[in-house]
From TrEMBL:
Its EC number is 2.7.11.1. The keyword Nucleotide-binding applies. GO terms for molecular function: ATP binding; protein serine/threonine kinase activity. Keywords: ATP-binding, Cell membrane, Glycoprotein, Kinase, Leucine-rich repeat, Membrane, Nucleotide-binding, Receptor, Repeat, Serine/threonine-protein kinase, Signal, Transferase, Transmembrane, Transmembrane helix. One of its GO terms (cellular component) is plasma membrane. It is a single-pass membrane protein. Its main location: membrane. It is an enzyme of class 2 (transferase). It comes from Ananas comosus. This is non-specific serine/threonine protein kinase. It catalyses: L-threonyl-[protein] + ATP = O-phospho-L-threonyl-[protein] + ADP + H(+); L-seryl-[protein] + ATP = O-phospho-L-seryl-[protein] + ADP + H(+).
Length: 683
């Protein structure tokens, strides 16, 4: 690092920000006793902060942010009595915040955010009476917030987000911190209510209190916050109607509104369309909102994200949503929406993600969906969509993440254009009424990791071209009308971990390479003419695996690759939990038996654990002892596996997102269950 004191004797400074300096901060820096400003931010500096920096007693500003500086914060920094700005953010600093920082009586900016600092927040920081900016977010700080910090009446910005802090925010915070423009305490463990006095800060611009354990209702006073740009109270336990939305129409510069993951109920007011013309992101999912989506939503023309998923919203999708030309993400999944998908949605030329699964939508997929040139992910599964899939949908080369049209009533053959989905990772067309051959062009979808076309009426041969899908991990073509032999090319797929070809009319010799060497990963039941080696080609079918054990193993195996995809960023933990319940119970979230407020989750939760066996799919007959080589799977073992999966699923769909299992924990538990299910006996 190069140091320079500058030309002017009266105001010596070292400004070396936004360069590519590497290495440690030189120890000689302590000799620059006349230095007033040290700015070496946004470089690649390493090592520790030299303790002799405290010898630079004339320093007024130190900015070492956005580097890779490690070690602890020197306790000697208190000697910099003239210091007004201390910015050490976005480094790799560890250890506690020195209590001696509380002696920097001239400090107006303290930014220690985005490090790995630990321990409690020192109460001595409450001595910094001139402090205006306090940024401690994204660390590992623990304990409660010292009451003295709420007495720093000069604070303009107060940020404690993403730590492990707990306790209640004082109800009179708005009176004790009258100059506050930004208050961020999200991603912690705060309890209590939203302080009513916070809404008395008429100049406040940003309130972020999401991902805590706040209860109660939204306090009055939002209508006075004319300068508010962000209001995020998502993922708490707030119980209220949506009447407060009308108050927010006075916040004419509001850009971000998140109220998702709470216990909000009632209908969406027509006034939602009167929210700020600058509003770009609106999160409302994961509540108990009912009624229809107002047509006025179409007036929020700056929206880039609209998420209303996992509510109780009914009625039709308003065509006015097609007026949201800036929209990138549209989430309407897990509701009770009915009617047809409006063709006007094809006007969303910038859309990248659409989630409408788990509703009661009917009719055909609009041809206008073929106009999406930037679409990355489309999920229309678990609806009542019918007729043929528009050919243009398979020409969307932008699709990279997911195309899920499963659990509908779609008909017709697969078009040759399916091969144009060369960048797609997951394709699920299962549980429809598709017919005709599996086209050879599917072998051109070379990015596929998961391909499912099960439970259709597909016929003809399994194409050899599937052997071109080198990254394929899961292939499910079960319960169709496929004939002929199993292509040897499937045995060449080194990444393949699950292959389900059961319940077709396949014949010939089963390949012996690759995935076929692991009988717990290959399912071929319901193909009586298949031969397991030349000695078994006598027309008899293998009997060492019973149908129900296979289904149990299929379910647990599917649960494990799908969870891997979720860890990779495809989907969310709540949706995964619902999917797991579908696998075990055989029921869709839109099953006609769920009426009067009853849902799939509530139905299973009411039966668990004492009556768990009653919700397991009746087709999963777990009454037989299964023998596979030296492996014996008892009925008790099969039932234990399925009940354990129900327990995991219920942990994924807990009302409070903070209490839900992480996907890595889910994967670990599922792998343990699978291992126990097919474990060979000890000799």
């Amino acid at each position: 690092m190069y140091l320079a004191a500058g030309k002017h004797r009266a105001r010596p400074m070292c400004c070396a920000q936004d360069n590519h300096f590497t290495g440690p901060i030189p120890g000689q820096i302590g000799s620059l006793t006349r230095l007033r400003v040290l700015n070496s931010s946004s470089n690649h500096l390493q090592g520790t902060i030299p303790p002799n920096l405290s010898a630079c007693v004339n320093l007024k500003a130190v900015d070492l942010s956005v580097n890779t500086i490690s070690g602890t914060i020197p306790t000697t920094l208190w000697m910099l009595s003239k210091l007004q700005v201390l910015n050490l953010a976005q480094n790799q600093l560890t250890g506690p915040i020195p209590t001696s920082i509380g002696n920097l009586s001239s400090l107006n900016t303290l930014n220690l955010g985005t490090n790995t600092l630990s321990g409690p927040i020192p109460r001595e920081l409450g001595h910094l009476k001139t402090l205006q900016q306090l940024q401690l977010s994204i660390n590992n700080l623990t304990g409660t917030v010292p009451p003295s910090l709420y007495n720093l009446s000069s604070l303009v910005s107060f940020a404690l987000a993403s730590n492990d802090l707990y306790g209640e925010v004082p109800s009179d915070i708005g009176f004790r911190l009258p100059k506050l423009l930004a208050f961020h305490n999200c991603f912690n463990q705060f309890t209590g209510t939203i302080p009513p006095s916070l809404h008395n800060l008429t100049k406040i611009k940003s309130i972020r209190m999401s991902h805590n354990y706040l209860v109660g209702s939204v306090p009055p006073g939002l209508g006075k916050l004319h300068d508010l740009t962000m209001y995020n109270i998502g993922f708490n336990q707030i119980v209220d109607t949506l009447d407060f939305v009308t108050s927010l129409t006075n916040s004419t510069v509001l850009q971000f509104l998140a109220i998702d993951g709470n216990l909000l109920n009632g209908t969406i007011p027509e006034s939602i369309g009167d929210l700020s013309a600058s509003l770009s992101k609106l999160y409302m999912g994961g509540n108990r909102i009912s009624g229809k989506i107002p047509a006025s939503i179409g007036r929020l023309t700056s929206l880039t994200l609209l998420n209303m998923s996992h509510n109780l919203i009914s009625g039709e999708i308003p065509p006015e949503i097609g007026q949201l030309k800036q929209l990138r993400m549209l989430g309407l999944a897990g509701n009770r929406l009915s009617g047809q998908i409006p063709a006007s949605l094809g006007n969303l030329s910038l859309i990248t993600q659409i989630e409408m699964y788990g509703n009661e939508l009917v009719g055909r997929i609009p041809d206008s969906f073929s106009e999406f040139q930037l679409l990355l992910s489309l999920d229309l599964s678990s609806n009542y969509l019918e007729e043929a899939i528009p050919n243009g949908l398979f020409t969307l080369t932008s699709l990279t993440s997911l195309l899920n049209l499963s659990r509908n009533s779609l008909t017709g053959p697969l078009p040759q254009d399916i091969g144009m989905l060369g960048n797609l990772v997951v394709l699920d067309l299962s549980n429809n009424l598709l017919s005709g051959n599996i086209t050879d062009s599917v072998g051109q979808c070379k990015s596929l990791q998961v391909l499912s076309m099960s439970n259709n009426s597909l016929s003809g041969l399994i194409p050899n071209s599937l052997g071109n899908l080198k990254g394929l991990q899961s292939l499910d073509l079960s319960s169709n009308r496929l004939i002929g032999s199993i292509p040897e090319t499937l045995g060449k797929l080194q990444a393949l971990q699950l292959l389900n070809l059961s319940f077709n009319d396949l014949d010939g010799i089963v390949p012996k390479e690759g995935v076929f060497q692991n009988r717990t990963a290959v399912y071929l039941e319901g193909n009586p003419n298949l031969c397991f080696g030349l000695s078994s080609c006598d027309g008899s079918s293998p009997s060492h695996r019973r149908k129900m054990a296979v289904h149990t193993v299929i379910i647990i195996t599917l649960a494990v690759f799908l969870s891997c995809l979720l860890i990779a960023g495809v989907g969310d933990v709540y949706s995964y939990g619902v999917m797991l319940l579908e696998l075990v119970t055989g029921k869709s979230p839109t099953d006609e038996s769920f009426v009067g407020g009853l849902s799939l989750v509530k139905w299973v939760r009411a039966a668990f654990p004492d009556r768990a066996a009653e919700v397991i799919d009746t087709e999963l007959d777990v009454t037989n002892v299964i023998r596979s080589g030296v492996c014996t799977i008892s009925p008790e073992k099969q039932l234990m596996c399925l009940v354990s999966m129900i327990r995991i699923a219920l942990c994924c769909v807990l009302e409070s997102p903070e209490t839900r299992s992480s996907m890595r924990d889910v994967l670990h538990q599922l792998e343990s269950i699978k291992e126990a299910l097919v474990k060979k006996p000890q000799i």
